[in-house]
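Reading a protein record of the kind used here takes little practice once its layout is understood. Each number in the token line that follows is a code from a learned vocabulary of backbone shapes. One such record is shown here in full, so that the layout can be seen directly:
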Amino acid sequence: NAQSLTRLREFALKCQGAKVDSRAMLFLENEAPDHYLDPLLASLMTNPVRLPTSDNVMELSAIKGQLLSDPRDPFNRAPLSVDMLEPLPELKREIAEWRERKLAEYQAQQ
């Protein structure tokens, strides 16, 4: 029906707007300050958390994946669980703002 088609088009537009091509991601990761990058994956963090057992900062999804197979801090092997992770909303906001500025810069160069 028409309503379903309209919702599908809106969804497609949202997906298109959210898509960042691989060249843009490479640009962001090359330009990012080290403390914006996950120390194990070297990828730009979007949801940084502090590991209280080692005081390192990692991407939430990366450390959650790590903890599924080994419930220890990857930096010092101390016992660690997801509920111990400390969200860093200020850093998350800082990275998001930096990312938006850099993406605009990248798009202006294209």
Remarks:
- Strands lie at 48-51, 56-59, 86-87.
- The chain has a mean pLDDT of 90.
- DSSP finds four helices and three strands in the chain.
